[in-house]
Amino acid sequence: MRCKLSEIALVSAGQGAPQGDSNYCESGTPFVKAGNLQELSNGASIDAIQKVSNEVAATHGLKLQRKGSVLFAKSGMSCLKGYVYVLPEDAYIVSHLACVTPMGVDSDYLCYYFRFHRPNKLVKDAAYPSISLADIGCLEIEIPEGNEVTQIVDALKRVESIINLHCQQITALDTLIKARFVEMFGDPVSNPYELPVVRLGELSELITKGASPSWQGFSYTDDSSQTLFVTSENVREGFLDLSSPKYIEDGFNDKQNRSMIYKGDFLINIVGASIGRAAQFNLECKANMNQASALVRINDNRIMDKYLLVYLNSDKAQRMYDSMKSDTGRANLSLQDINDLTIMLPPLDMQIEYETFVHQVDKSKAVVQKALDEAQTLFDSLMQQYFG
């Protein structure tokens, strides 16, 4: 059965958010803002977000949205990101959010539908992104007959549960690596073993950064034989995410040869909300980068790669990054800041022992990652089969 969304659901929006911390409390009803959608849709608990009391809700004319309603952003930059979330309990929502309350159709089915057919495709002006409630209500949606909806939702949930389990396994293995670090070398914040400390610049032959391609007159290309272009979005905590790679014309390397990335180089984000995330580049390919990350090339045999990578993502390193930001009032770090990072320097034999341990854990992670990739491929295939 094909019908308009307005025929099977109520489409509404939230209200303006109460201003000031005094309007929020710890034990009231959740108030969902557009900025909460990403974390919520990725599995965060709704209990962690701000709440309002019944009195504040009445004063501000807030309308309670019911459990099972499907939320997504309808205005602001958040609506370009396409996050979709099903309310697990009654909640209030901000005016930037659209609320689709099902009438006789499964909430999870609608959520999966919108995860495949992103509502952000309705945005007409990317400069001022917004989606009208009328356009949302006019969306045509396919509703299978009989119990097929239940079968579809059950199948997708089963595969998603497998995906979530593998993600938890990878997180647990990462936690094990960090725990072993503290066990062997102590908490890097307090340095209880009084290990010697050196500046990162003393261990490096090069600390630099790249540039924006447009500043240099170069364009991105779909040709994967050209130069891989790495940005801060690719630099995650401990690894590079190249699931959506960008490429730049090879000529960019002639102008920006100093920021060419080679296997073994470390990248540290120095701009924006992801400041301090660090990863190591372990590919054999042409690569360059923009100005949002620092490139660090080590040339000192007193430090091992695995040890340094965990250290650069440690609480100690993050505190140093935060201190450098607060000292200058900037939303970024300089290359001098990266040069001045202090690094604990344990005995080399201990680092080698730690590196051996990490290699073993990485083998286990690779097995889990393979299973995760296979489950994700199955999930994507089912989504295409059901909603494509």
Structure description:
By secondary structure, the protein is an alpha+beta fold. It has helices spanning 37-41, 54-59, 107-116, 133-137, 148-185, 200-203, 252-255, 305-312, 315-328, 335-339, 348-387, and strands at residues 2-4, 9-13, 29-32, 51-52, 70-73, 84-86, 92-93, 97-102, 140-142, 197-199, 204-209, 220-221, 227-230, 246-248, 266-269, 278-280, 287-289, 293-298, 342-344. The strands form six sheets. It has a four-stranded antiparallel sheet. Strand 15 and strand 16 (278-280) form a beta hairpin. It is globular, with a radius of gyration of 24 Å. The protein starts with a strand and ends with a helix.
Comma- or semicolon-separated keywords:
388 residues, alpha+beta, four-stranded antiparallel β-sheet, 11 helices, 19 strands, 36% helix
In short:
With 388 residues, the chain is α+β, with helices and mostly antiparallel strands. It has helices at 37-41, 54-59, 107-116, 133-137, 148-185, 200-203, 252-255, 305-312, 315-328, 335-339, 348-387; strands at 2-4, 9-13, 29-32, 51-52, 70-73, 84-86, 92-93, 97-102, 140-142, 197-199, 204-209, 220-221, 227-230, 246-248, 266-269, 278-280, 287-289, 293-298, 342-344.
